[in-house]
Design goal:
single chain, 7 strands, mainly alpha, 757 residues
């Protein structure tokens, strides 16, 4: 106990010391990577930004995280992060940057927390290197520069980690409760993904605390109970509220938060079985894929692009887009194929795996000589914590059926921690000539440089040969020189070791800057020379990724007029829906081009823009404008349509209704008016029945409907009834005169009016 008290006093004394001057540039680097130019992203992820706009309008919308101001349907995630974003928007005004700001600050905060966590046990240089590795892990700033949840989730879990470490040092049960309660808060950010760290928390507490087993079990049981209570608190309140007094729980099939948490957002991510009931959730996943695919093909009407497109059609004519868990070449969303080496496959390795070989060598060094039975040092205990975080999460991503590249940020803290702790430990072993252990440092440098060359090789057309050859050559030379100079102790050897660390971080640093250099994607963030596409992997769809644009989506009722029918993935004509892509299906859940069309692997977005189209009344040169409208959804509103709807509104609650959130989001963001996404995010939620819709129309809640062919998975009867009982509004009254009809997967978008007496 005296030892514990001395540690607390030492911590208080250290806190009074001056700021670590080496930490200042690291924090500035993190701030630059996370904050620079976030003010250019006007919409961010429009699906979430629309929710913040709605949540600003009432406490009812705020509590339930309603997607629309009318409180019709919620977004598909718990509300905590969006509460924070809404508060930020309330303070700074509603802007794209104000909803991104909390995540950017969380990214910087994670760098600082990792420094604090690693420094105390492994030394100040270990803390510095860990913080720098965290800041330069490419997927970290890529996610933090958006209004997606994961950056805030990681920050919250690191806060929980700090509480757990303090609980062990001080032997105070209150900190244990606080740590597990914080995981419960994280659950209300992204549900079961927060529980991925639980093995580390349980293992560390059992190994590190010096209390008897009865107390360990009692304390952990109580803390777990508290965590579960905090986790389900919001869900229980929502699920206990009458359905007619709250919004429908978006992306669930039974209007239940718990079903969403443990089904679609839970175990189905592991299995890849996103169909749940029928195949409605599969449709949601496919809608996301359409969004991503659309953004990889923009502003491609130059002669160079046309030439490359021809080559692509030849190479991809036999490729098929598959549902989650499918076996196409790079996996869905470029997440590779399940297997033990998945994290080294293209599309994932360049997001997170740059330092993995060095981490493996570090783990060997840190655990060298550890015996299963016996006492462990503090370094070994905390190393065990980071290992128990790293391994289960790595295993999940190696076998999971459905996830996005940006989920990999969950691996960043343990990788950075081992990089920092391992750098110091391996250097110490190297300097002490400690037998085989002294070879771990040059071995780690050599293998890490080799992996980085492998990661960069598919990008040779974008980044050139020089950086790839430079990293490879310097890595080999420095590793060999360090091996040769193992017996020499002088300043030159120290400089060589420092130079090796710089070389290993050089390309991750460049990759971390790519969302700034090339533009980011707020819906599916990733890093790399094609970061604006949101699909990761080597660039294969644009001759100049700098000109690939940010969003080719268009508002209902408008298009660029650039026909691209020969390059668009469409369902075979005459096929039934069957829960596949809205408007069509294909064998075994695969998406195929129509017979006789050339297949460039492109698809269309709900709402109906073509992949080669541009923003209305814009040219490719405007894709790099000071205010970019990214977000993976329609980034503009059709002003003529908006004027028509506003002028002809006779007191209806909803400005108009549409099949899914894609068409609704920009109108909510721009106007703050209620727009009904009848089928939720993807149009597949079973929210409406014909009887309910009739009642809403009779009450005067809605009379205009924009249908683009999407969302039929759970709305077929409703859409059929609308078409049979409405009058079609002539396109000349609401379509932009400067553009042709908007094309969708099953035809042109159409505006209908229904009035029932």
């Amino acid at each position: 106990m005296k030892h514990m008290n001395s540690e607390v006093k030492e911590e208080r004394t250290s806190n009074k010391k001056r700021i670590d001057l080496f930490l200042v540039p690291i924090v500035l680097i993190a701030a630059f990577l996370n904050l620079f130019k976030i003010w250019t992203d006007e919409y961010a992820n429009a699906y979430y930004t629309a929710a913040v706009k709605s949540m600003l309008q009432s406490l009812h919308n705020f509590f339930y995280a309603s997607f629309d101001p009318g409180g019709y349907v919620t977004i598909d995630k718990p509300p905590v992060v969006f509460w924070i974003q809404t508060i930020s928007a309330k303070i700074f005004g509603f802007h794209g940057w104000s909803v991104i700001l909390p995540q950017a600050l969380a990214g910087i905060g994670s760098v600082l927390l990792l420094y604090v966590l690693v420094k105390r046990t492994f030394g100040v240089w270990a803390g510095r290197f860990a913080a720098l590795a965290m800041a330069l892990t490419p997927i970290v700033p890529a996610v933090s520069r958006t209004n997606n949840i994961d950056s805030m989730l990681v920050f919250t879990l690191l806060v929980a980690t700090w509480m757990l470490f303090r609980a062990v040092r001080t032997a105070k049960f209150g900190w244990v409760l606080a740590a597990f309660a914080m995981i419960g808060v994280a659950f209300n950010m992204k549900m079961l993904q927060a529980y991925m760290v639980l093995p580390a928390f349980y293992v560390f507490y059992v190994v590190a605390t010096k209390i008897n087993w009865k107390k360990k079990i009692a304390f952990l049981t109580t803390a777990t109970a508290l965590m579960l209570a905090v986790s389900v608190s919001w869900a229980v309140v929502v699920d206990s509220t009458s359905a007619d007094k709250r919004p429908y729980m978006g992306s669930s099939q039974t209007n239940s938060v718990l079903e969403l948490a443990f089904g679609y957002n839970g175990i189905n991510r592991l299995t890849g079985n996103t169909s749940v009931t029928g195949s409605s959730h599969k449709q949601s996943a496919q809608t996301e894929q359409q969004t991503a695919s659309s953004e990889t093909k923009q502003n491609s009407n130059s002669s160079a692009d046309s030439s490359q497109s021809s080559n692509q059609r030849k190479s991809s004519s036999s490729q098929k887009m598959q549902a989650p868990g499918g076996g196409n070449q790079n996996g869905m969303f470029n997440t590779g194929n399940p297997g033990p080496f998945r994290l080294f496959q293209k599309g994932l390795s360049d997001q997170i795996s740059w330092l993995l070989p060095f981490v493996i060598f570090s783990i060997v060094g840190l655990f060298a000589g550890v015996k299963f039975k016996g006492s462990y040092t503090t370094k070994q205990k905390e190393s065990l914590f980071w290992l128990a975080w790293l391994l289960p999460v790595a295993v999940f991503f190696s076998i999971a059926g459905f996830f996005h590249q940006y989920y990999l940020i969950m691996l960043a803290p343990p990788i950075a921690a081992f990089a920092g702790a391992g750098a110091v430990a391996l250097w110490s072993m190297y300097k002490q000539h400690n037998g085989w252990k002294s070879w771990l440092l040059p071995g780690g440098i050599l293998t890490t440089a080799a992996l980085q060359v492998y990661i960069m090789s598919p990008y040779v057309s974008s980044i050139g040969v020089a950086p790839i050859a430079g990293v490879g050559a310097l890595g080999v030379i420095l590793a060999l020189v360090l091996a040769v100079r193992k017996q020499r102790k002088n300043s030159l050897t120290n400089y060589l070791g420092a130079a090796a660390m710089v070389v290993l971080l050089a390309m991750p640093a460049y990759w971390a800057m790519t969302p700034i250099i090339y533009g980011g994607n707020s819906m599916l963030p990733s890093a790399g020379p094609d970061s604006s596409s949101g699909m990761g992997g080597p660039p294969s769809t644009a001759t100049n990724s700098k000109q690939s644009g940010f969003n080719g989506m268009q508002p209902p009722g408008s298009s660029s007029g650039n026909s691209s029918s020969n390059n668009q993935m469409q369902p075979p004509s005459g096929s039934s829906n069957g829960g596949q892509m809205p408007g069509g299906s294909s064998n075994n859940g695969q998406m195929q081009p129509p017979s006789g069309s050339s297949n460039s692997g492109e698809m269309q977005m709900p709402g109906g823009s073509s992949n080669n189209s541009q923003m209305p009344n814009s040219s490719s040169s405007k894709s790099s404008s000071s205010k970019r409208k990214s977000g993976g959804m329609n980034a503009e509103v059709n002003k003529k349509l908006l004027n028509y709807l506003t002028k002809n509104n006779t007191g209806e609650k909803y400005l108009f209704a549409t099949t899914d959130s894609t068409s609704a989001a920009p109108y909510i963001i721009k106007t703050g008016e209620p727009v009904m996404a009848m089928g939720g995010f993807s149009g597949s939620d079973p929210i409406l029945m014909v009887s309910k819709l009739k009642a809403m129309i009779k009450k005067g809640e809605v009379k205009y409907f924009y249908l683009s062919g999407m969302g039929k998975g759970g709305q077929s009867d409703v859409i059929t009834w609308i078409k049979e009982n409405s009058k079609e509004i002539p396109s000349s009254k609401w379509q932009s005169t400067s553009s042709s009809a908007q094309q969708g997967p099953s035809g042109n978008g159409t505006l209908y009016e229904i009035t029932l007496k």
